[in-house]
Specification:
The complex is a heterodimer of chains A (571) and B (254). Chain A has 571 residues and is an alpha+beta fold. Among the domains of chain A are: 108 residues, Succinate dehydrogenase/fumarate reductase flavoprotein, catalytic domain (Flavocytochrome C3, Chain A, domain 1), CATH 3.90.700.10; 101 residues, Methane Monooxygenase Hydroxylase, Chain G, domain 1 (Up-down Bundle), CATH 1.20.58. Chain A is built from 15 helices and 20 strands. The longest helix of chain A has 25 residues. In chain B, 38% of the residues lie in helices and 14% in strands. A five-stranded mixed β-sheet of chain B has the order 2-1-5-3-4. Chain B has a two-stranded antiparallel ribbon with strand order 6-7. Classes of the chains: A alpha+beta (571), B alpha+beta (254). At the A-B interface, α3, α4, α9 and α12 of A face α1 and α3 of B.
Chain lengths: 571, 254
């Protein structure tokens, strides 16, 4: 056993991770990406609708500006976003979008050849740059191509399971090389965690199977604090049964939400035009209210509503919504040109994550984070559609720059021996797992976790539901952490992978539920039936969770307000 | 409300840590309408056999993880409706001709190595403008389909030429080359073309059309390969004409 090492390693090969890695490679730092999948398989690839930047390219958005983008973002966040971070997002975001274009992203175009922009939820102007309805795929492919050009080193299909610290500083990670079935140590003087969200904590999620939050839990277990874990976004439109994402871009292009009587119900909930383009938290709650009050459809996979594009010109559907057409046909047997698409809200995005400053730094020296696994916070209590792709590029690059300058400033020697000791200690832990009962239990516990989260930590919450959920989660945790693994070789051992994932999901769920139970107000995606209003006097603050096996220690950080004083959020 | 069906799966198994040779395992699976091969495999993993290994992630035909051979045809497991298969027998095998890591997981190293040979990134020598490089909607339409490639490996491993010759770039890498060569912003003709024009490039394709038949994203790799050949021909003709003109010029002056 011989540990390798790099000055900086990036955990995760999605947009945030690759953007950090490209920056590091460009600055000549010895760096590598460590990812549980090939970078092209990362979940960024599934983003559909687009990326926001105030380019002012669309006819309707000639007077757009970064400041208006910032205002929309802060209002969308229900004033929980840190406004200095949002200013960085909206100004640097413009450069990042042009840069991706220069690197080859096939953005859709206006008639005069500029990047096309469409309307998206909560945006004053048409601001969302897109590549048909496959923007994540277009961006990730381009960034991967750029990473090849820059010679970025990737440890593919390496599952990171432990963060190794020495005297409170970063020393490396322990990972499982899935293809070889071997535990490996990778020493590093700095690490950027960019492992994505934890949507699989919920039964119905648009997220991929790999989105379990293990890349967030690994630093959390080692003492890196998390922020705002109670804020979870539920996307209004996913296909019933599979929860496959149907982009907000469908409504951006003129799609209409209808209830079982064919009514465009969103106009009863908001005054804005078009009403279907209210921010996601509001549309989702409106949809669930329609269903609760008996105005939904009932199908084999439960209740649903309709998303209607049958009135749109065929050309728009073919050229701008071709991916949605393909998904509807392949996975719901519906041709959206002829029939409305059945839709239902599903978990979509984790606003919370590893707590970072505006440069991606965490309180632990040498640990950085970016993308969905991080929380800066630019999204606050509710993210606007089109802002997550932007965040990955802006803050992925920033985390790369910070990590590079950290290793240049701090001459920390590698400690291969320590990393190897940790590999060997983890090997003992694996043997212990092999000696305990696993198998089907893991899947049963996973379903139990997902049911608890969906029932009581979902779209509508209450004190009773949350405290009940927290008790059940803590009981579940004991069983989860006692579960073993019945398959006793490590090569592509998916049961082992899921056993690790389940530990991560359970602890992140406990962190989120604890924060949600304490937050006696409704803000953005966190809606409490027993506290229906926002309470700025007591709750204009971020929830910070620090890991203990008994549950998180909770503290609070102030929200940074610069230009926009909190006012009532009306659409 | 939902009517259940039953299907019989025969799945290729090979565990290099325990097996001397491969074998097939058989499973009966209860299925639901609208179910795909991937969800049946996940069901087997969950309820019957946790030792089964396969790649999967997005379950929506965009991450490219779950390429495998289903009833003899290279496909994505997540996009293959059980109802589209003929009868209740389903045979699942790893992508053809690739080294097996375990069960349905193959080593994709050669596939990506070939992709890298065509310098798969936009190449520009002109200085970038402060804003976007302009591209008309018509110019964009020329690459619109080609950029849909998800690198799943289905087309390349469905190609009978690739089965016997892994040095052949294969349809996916050739589509990638054609994507850049067709992009109005790209200035790297020679770089992308270098390996395409050599042995094991576009001329090694034997027009079996299996790539086009199997592509889960409805890209037409065969058409892309024909496009590359046309580009090579145009270039050769152009060089010939210029060569002749130059010779004539030399003759005239002397």
């Amino acid at each position: 056993m011989h540990a390798v090492h790099h000055d900086v390693i990036v955990i995760g090969g999605g947009l945030a991770g690759l953007r950090a890695a490209v920056e590091l490679a460009d600055s000549g730092i010895d760096s590598a990406v460590v990812s549980r999948v090939h970078p092209l398989r990362s979940h960024s690839v599934a983003a559909e609708g687009g990326i926001n930047a105030a380019l002012g390219n669309a006819e309707e958005s000639a007077s757009d500006s970064p400041e208006i983008h910032a205002y929309d973002t802060v209002k969308g966040s229900d004033y929980l976003a840190d406004q200095d971070a949002v200013e960085i997002l909206v100004t640097e975001g413009i450069d990042r979008v042009y840069e991706m274009e220069h690197w080859g992203t096939p953005f859709s175009r206006t008639d005069d050849g500029r990047i096309a922009q469409r309307a998206f939820g909560g945006g004053t102007y048409h601001r969302t740059c897109y590549s048909a309805d496959k923007t994540g795929h277009a961006l990730l492919t381009t960034l991967y191509e750029r990473s090849i050009k820059e010679g970025v080193v990737v440890y593919e299909e390496h599952l990171v399971v432990r963060l190794v610290l020495k005297n409170g500083r970063t020393a490396g990670v322990v990972a499982l090389d899935l293809l070889k079935g071997k535990l490996v140590g990778i020493g590093a003087r700095a690490i950027v965690f960019a492992g994505g969200g934890f949507g699989r904590t919920y039964r119905h999620t648009t997220n991929a199977h790999i989105n379990t939050g293990l890349g967030t839990a690994v630093p959390y277990w080692a003492g890196v604090p998390l922020k705002d874990m109670e804020f979870v976004q539920f996307h209004p439109t996913s296909l019933p049964g599979t929860s496959i994402l149907i982009t907000e871009g469908v409504r951006g292009e003129g799609g209409i939400l209808r209830n079982a009587s064919g009514e465009r119900f969103m106009s009863r909930y908001v005054k804005m035009q078009p009403p279907d383009l209210a921010p996601r938290d509001i549309v989702t709650r409106s949809m669930m209210t329609e269903i609760e009050e008996g105005r939904g459809f009932t199908g084999p996979w439960g209740p649903y509503l309709n998303l209607d594009v049958t009135h749109l010109p065929k050309r728009i559907i073919e050229e701008r919504l071709g991916g949605i057409r393909e998904l509807s046909q392949s996975f719901a047997d519906i041709d959206p040109e002829r029939k409305p698409i059945p839709v239902i809200p599903a978990q979509h995005y984790s606003m919370g994550g590893i707590s970072t400053d505006n440069n991606g730094a965490t309180p632990v020296p040498g640990v950085f984070a970016a993308g969905e696994s991080a929380c800066v916070s630019v999204h606050g209590a509710n993210r606007l559609g089109g802002n997550s792709l932007l965040e990955t590029l802006v803050f992925g690059r920033r985390a790369g720059i910070s990590a590079a300058s950290y290793v240049k400033k701090n001459d920390i020697p590698f400690d291969d021996t320590l990393v190897e000791q940790e590999v060997s200690a983890f090997g003992d832990y694996v043997q212990d797992l092999f000696s305990r009962e696993g198998g089907k239990r893991i899947f049963d516990l996973e379903s139990e976790l997902q049911a608890i989260m969906e029932e009581d930590v979902g779209i509508f919450r209450s004190r009773d539901g949350l405290s009940n959920a927290l008790e059940r989660l803590k009981d579940l945790r004991k069983r989860v952490w006692n579960t073993g693994v019945s398959v006793h070789t490590l090569r592509y051992n998916l049961e082992f992978v899921r056993a690790m994932d389940l530990r991560a999901m359970t602890d992140l769920a406990i962190a989120g539920t604890s924060g949600a139970l304490l937050r006696n107000e409704s803000r953005g995606a966190h809606f409490r039936r027993d506290f229906r209003e926002r309470n700025d006097e007591e709750w204009m603050k971020h929830t910070v969770s620090t890991f203990t096996p008994e549950g998180p220690l909770i503290s609070y950080d102030p929200v940074r307000v610069t230009k926009f004083e909190p006012t009532r959020r009306v659409y | 409300m939902v009517e259940k069906g039953k299907m019989h799966f025969r799945i290729f198994r090979f565990d290099p840590d325990n097996d001397k040779s491969y074998h097939y395992d058989e499973y009966d699976v209860e299925t639901l309408p609208g179910e795909v091969v991937l969800s049946a495999l996940l069901d087997i993993q969950k309820k019957v056999d946790p030792t089964l290994s396969f790649r999967y992630s997005c379950r929506m035909a965009v991450c490219g993880s779950c390429g495998m051979v289903i009833n003899g045809q290279q496909r994505l497991a997540c996009k293959t409706q059980l109802s589209s298969l003929n009868g209740p027998e389903v045979v699942v095998e790893p992508l053809s001709s690739m080294p097996v890591v375990k069960d349905l997981v193959v080593d994709m190293g050669k596939f990506f190595a070939n992709m890298k040979k065509i310098q798969p990134y936009l190449i520009r020598y002109s200085a970038d403008p402060g804003k976007e490089v302009l591209q008309s909607p018509d110019e964009w339409r020329r690459i619109d389909r080609l950029v849909d490639c998800i690198s799943c490996g289905v087309c390349t491993t469905a190609c009978p030429v690739f089965w016997t010759n892994h040095s052949y770039l294969g349809p996916a890498a050739l589509v990638k080359a054609y994507r850049f060569l067709s992009d109005s912003r790209d200035e790297g003709y020679n770089e992308h073309m270098e390996h395409v024009a050599l042995d094991n490039g576009a001329l090694t394709c034997k027009d079996a059309y299996q790539c086009t038949v199997s592509c889960p994203k409805s890209i037409n790799p065969q058409e892309a390969i024909e496009g590359l050949r046309a580009m090579m021909l145009r270039k050769r003709t152009w060089e010939k004409i210029h060569h002749q003109t130059a010779e004539q010029a030399i003759t005239t002056t002397s």
